[in-house]
Fold:
Amino acid sequence: MSAPNKNYDPVAVSSLSPGEVSRMLDEALAAVAQAGSLEELRAARIAHAGDRSPLALARAEIGALPPEARAEAGRRVSAAQTQLKDALSRRQAELEADRDQRVLVTEAVDVTLPGDRTPPGALHPVTLLADRLSDVFVAMGYEVAEGPEVEAEWYNFDALNIPPDHPAREMQDTLFVAPSSGPGSAGGPGLPSQGSSGLVLRTHTSPVQIRSMLTRPLPLYVVSPGRCYRNEALDATHLPVFYQIEGLAVDEGLTMADLRGAIQAFVDAMFGAGLRTRLRPDYFPFTEPSGDVSMECHVCRGASTDPGADPCRVCRSQGWIEIAGCGMVNPRVLVACGIDPDRYSGFAFGLGIERALMVGHDLTDIRETVDGDVRFSRAFGMEI
Ligand code: FA5
Structure:
């Protein structure tokens, strides 16, 4: 600011003259009007309304005027600054409205365009059924137990009362991984030691029975779902790799009646109450007596067996559908696991999950479960 000027010097304060203030204002208003963006307007604001702008510098000169001239010069500069401030506000509002309009156009979403959604994938129907079957038993108080798919022969056969020369080893078309290291796994009286056992791809989930009996406290109620392998050709009812689920109970005083009760409860949970179950004699080395379980056909309920009735595809007009192998745990198996057969008894059952899926959904070819065709899974209501 210039020094106070008692003798009014119009040259020193020329910036406060009406013409000069009006020129500064015109220049500022022109810059505001020309600002084409908020950025440019910001620059114009700093240049023409900021602390170092011509109008601000002129206002600083007011003190240099003689007192009688100060008020008029102050009013002049204030009026110019007010006019500029209003112009800046108006332009700011216009530019913001422009920007908002542009954003609305460029960021508009056309909700009518087709979606580009990546389907999340889903569990396979066989996995879902395995989970559902396990849940039924978990609800009855069973624990889920799992075992390895590459299994010691001792667990897969020997401890289950299937000695090396037993025809049941042939029955199950075993895939061998490593041979046994010595004669130890060949039976003799009683069950063989596990030390020299070879390795196989487990042919059933029954070895998990042995693992459970050896490691878990009694009484024991376990359910074991899992993958099994057999050297079998793929056809409409056989897979070389398939799933089974196995149940095992070992407790004091268990009888065939408990086995029947467990199986009936399972069928009720899966298909709704009211379907009868039937046990017929069968043979498994690890259960004695052994049986196969059938349930009344859930589709025709036996009606297809009446003379002249429509045939039933699901039970092939037998009225019954075989669902599982079962039996009372052979005392020799209990002994192999260090369990006193005079005090404890047990029952076990096992079924094929793909076969159960076929029964439940009227599938005629088991290969559909492994083809990998998503239409198969979609038919079960899955999004893939
Ligand atoms: C067994 O494997 C016994 N461990 C079942 C068992 C457990 C009996 C406990 C008694 C007590 P099996 O070989 O029958 O039994 O096989 C059981 C089920 O597995 C069959 O009923 C069938 O549903 C399924 N299964 C067997 N082989 C195949 C295969 N190649 N493809 C698809 N499913 C199969």
